[in-house]
Amino acid sequence: MESVALHQIGDAVPVAMLVVDHNARVMTANAAAVAMLGAGLTDRPFVTVLRQPLINRAVDQTLAPTQAQEPASTRLSATIRARGREQNCIVTVSPLTVRGRRGAVVVLEDTTGVEQAEQMRRDFVANVSHELRTPLTALMGFIETLRGPARDDAAARERFLAIMDREAGRMNRLIGDLLSLSRVEQKERRRPVERLDLAALVRGACATLAPTAKAANQTLRQIDKGLTAPVAGDPDQIQQVLHNLIENAIKYGSRAQSGGEVRVTLFHVPHEPVLRGPGWAVEVADDGEGIDHVHLPRLTERFYRVDTHRSREKGGTGLGLAIVKHIVARHRGRLKIDSMKGQGSRFTVILPEWVPPGSGSKQGRGG
């Protein structure tokens, strides 16, 4: 009866927990422990379950019969390798009386995700600081020069002011993208349900960016065959996705000064496995130099650039595709990136087709 009660209590605990008897054998392991360490944990010497000297020493000390009084709980940090991966854990070993004998409870709290999130935060702060420091340093240097040696040099003043304007604009774009990314992340768990015509948004984005394409010696071609494409979404965010992808294709999709063509194609997807249903896709393709396959998995990371110098020269902040990824995730859609060096690139966004509420579809109910 006692072992049954221990097992029931263990399964109610949301973190990994093992109960060890006075012989240092595992009496019970809850579901979280099995998920972390694997099956077949019970009725085994504890040392064969967790081969971690610090934890084993804490268990031995807790079970030691020579102690005059009940030992206190031991809390320690340890790296545990199980099921082919390493996990950072906070381990608590506490005394427990089992069948009239001294036993122990070992609780393992996996902190790997927390530590990874903290590392991401540190990297993010470092990246933002670096991105802002460069234009700030340039601005401060030019201000000092204009106050001193170039005070009366009209030609130098105009040249420096133009550079200062460009650097200030770069900082403004960076701050704008950071704020945009923050807003998207805040809303990411709330799926939009407003009915939109994706085709109309595509036409609007192409019309807005046509002058930009012309100035870059690019041809912007829209292919939608007069379709109407109903999706559930946030119109401002979808517009931002289209704007970011098309603008990127215009900026980076030409080879030197030879120009090129950016094709924006809208089409229906009868069944998208990831969406588990029908959807509408927008494909933005260019004739540029393409991207080496080694870079593709990291393109949507914050501040990741294939060519840092070229990106900054074009006014990029390194956040555009990260914003696209988060917006698409909020809409429960899919982002596909296909590119080969020397053969151009294709960025495809697939959004679930809008279904009227009450029709029995998850899309219609907002997921």
Description of the molecule:
With 367 residues, the chain is α+β, with helices and mostly antiparallel strands. Helices cover 43% and strands 25% of the residues. The protein has ten helices and twelve strands. The protein has helices spanning 2-12, 31-37, 46-49, 53-63, 112-147, 154-187, 198-215, 235-252, 308-313, 320-330; strands spanning 16-20, 26-29, 74-82, 85-98, 101-110, 195-197, 218-223, 230-232, 260-272, 277-285, 334-339, 345-352. The strands form three sheets. The protein has a five-stranded antiparallel β-sheet, with helices on both faces. Strands 7-9-10-12-11 form a five-stranded mixed β-sheet. α8 runs antiparallel to α10 (320-330). It is extended. It starts with a helix and ends in a 15-residue tail after the last strand. The model is unreliable at 363-367 (pLDDT under 50).
